Amino acid sequence: MSRVLYDLAGADESIRFSPFCWRTKLALAHKNLAFETTPWHFTEKDKIAFSGQSKVPVLVDGEKVVSDSHTIAEYLETTYPNEASLFGEPPARPLTTFIKAWTETVLHPALVPVLLADIHALLTPEDQAYFRQTRKGYYKRSLEDFAAHRAEAITLLNTAMKPLKSTLEKQPFLAGLAPNYADHIVFGALKWATTVSSTTLLEPNGVLERWMNAVLETYGLA
Amino acid sequence: MSRVLYDLAGADESIRFSPFCWRTKLALAHKNLAFETTPWHFTEKDKIAFSGQSKVPVLVDGEKVVSDSHTIAEYLETTYPNEASLFGEPPARPLTTFIKAWTETVLHPALVPVLLADIHALLTPEDQAYFRQTRKGYYKRSLEDFAAHRAEAITLLNTAMKPLKSTLEKQPFLAGLAPNYADHIVFGALKWATTVSSTTLLEPNGVLERWMNAVLETYGLA
């Protein structure tokens, strides 16, 4: 059976640079499936018209034509179940490491400029003095400066939260049908935010607010 | 047995806002373990001196004192193995959704401004005209404008890659000891970048370059 992948190429056809085609090439390799590639250029729409698509990757697997890298991955996982799983066990725990790293290197730093002055307002007088001094030490900016730029910080925060929103539009929890520690890590960040923020940060009844409530409901904490 | 969590509080002690304490509270709930909280203020270092820590969360679980939210999660997973797993099956696949969302909403958008003019240079003349026109349509910026701001775009890219670097400093692959589709998705993005970039984007022999080589070696593609 022949297996051919249409693969985006430069003028020099040895240059193959599409990130989506690369996903598919690795998925085929992971499944130990032999394949050939056909170099394809952006304007060669006619060459892949048979697929009903105007973009690559397009995989021709014997009689079957499949396009879109994620659809191809799902197709390979289903069609070749005896080969190594593309999504499978036991990587839940290592993938949680990425959620943690994202939370701590992106989400928390995006929240800090939004929340810092608000947190200060909530503290005991002793803690206020401590907080002002230590945060000035960490961030080299005053609380007043953070407060003055809060609107811009909220814009950046909304950008930072995109992968989270996108994921939770597709599935109820980061961990799937029920929350686990990956959800807990991110929930902590947003609970921090919504607890201390002087303004509404999450769209009321939007995907993030509904997810937070669902986490709490799971544990009888709502 | 008593189980007490020291929990960061505002002047109003009902306000509990630490993202790390929230992680721990949810982890305890996930494990169905009863606990009480003790409100704690930033400056009350003396109250938790027994833990050897100056920060919360600090969990006192009977005779055992554990601090740092991630250490606590590992402790709970090990100590209470018969309760629901904090990291466990089957969420590998749903967690991959987040990796995909991050790649497409953060990493790809961070790469586009760096790569666009470089990609153009690699294309056939027909594709160059197509590419210039369609990208101007998508991004409302010319290739020349992208090229002129490439240095700033690289700075932003390095910020965007932080969670990736941080994860791969801790483990060989996103999926753990061997790559899976989560690795493939992100690899695709960086392979795209390194294939087309006119300058070196990844630190030579740095964690990202070594990870990319290891992915290829896994599949005999190096």
TrEMBL record, chains A, B:
SUPFAM superfamilies noted in UniProt: GST C-terminal domain-like (SSF47616), Thioredoxin-like (SSF52833)
Record-level Gene Ontology MF annotations: glutathione transferase activity; maleylacetoacetate isomerase activity
Keyword Transferase: yes
Secretion signal, residue range per the UniProt entry: none
Domain GST N-terminal: 8-84
A Pfam family hit: GST_C_7
Biological-process GO terms, alphabetical: glutathione metabolic process; L-phenylalanine catabolic process
Origin: domain of life: Bacteria
InterPro entries reported in the protein's UniProt record: Glutathione-S-Trfase_C_sf, Glutathione_S-Trfase, Glutathione_S-Trfase_N, GST_UstS-like_C, Thioredoxin-like_sf
Keywords attached to this entry: Transferase
Protein name in UniProt: Glutathione S-transferase
Organism: Acidocella aromatica
